UniProtKB/TrEMBL annotation:
NCBIfam families: Rossman fold protein, TIGR00730 family. This is Cytokinin riboside 5'-monophosphate phosphoribohydrolase. The keyword Lipid metabolism does not apply. It catalyses: AMP + H2O = D-ribose 5-phosphate + adenine. It is an enzyme of class 3 (hydrolase). Its EC number is 3.2.2.n1. The keyword rRNA processing does not apply. InterPro entries: LOG, LOG_fam. Keywords: Cytokinin biosynthesis, Hydrolase. Belongs to the LOG family.
Amino acid sequence: MGDICVFCASSAKVDQSYLEEAYLLGEVLVENGYGLKYGGGAVGSMGAVANKVLELNGRVTGVIPYFMVQVEWEHKGVENMIHVETMAERKELLIKDIEAIVVLPGGTGTLEELFEVLSLKKLGQFTQPVILVNTNGYFNALNDFLNKMIDEKFMRPEHGELWHIVDSVKEIPEALKNIPDWDEDALKFAAV
């Protein structure tokens, strides 16, 4: 199996349930033969998922900009750490050569990564599954808003397949088996 890219938060102040779900994600990845590709941080959900994968001797690739290294956000235990100049380079490398993207609850950085990938997928520039883990109903309002975009004809009905939602990381392996391939040619540059 290849790598799963995980978008998630660096805040350690969040409710413990979010960190536990990130920790469990690390376990799910290793048990199913996937490597972790993530933003290289050491704390919050980032640190939790990386720590669990490392604890289980799984594969971890971090991608982090130099400015984050300078403020000591880098996970020191990740040997395969790629340093880049910009956030844009980071995102580009994170989504290269991966099996899927898993999005855990997070803040503006996590959402910015998610929306860039959804936009790329809509334009046929990215075709892998994007799975949102809806811990504590975190993504309910976002899912409603995305569906409102479809209802109001800012996106086509087919664009509702850009993302998939699971309630727990335990559902990810089954979801990956059942998510249909994204037809990049049929939807490429598709207007509403």
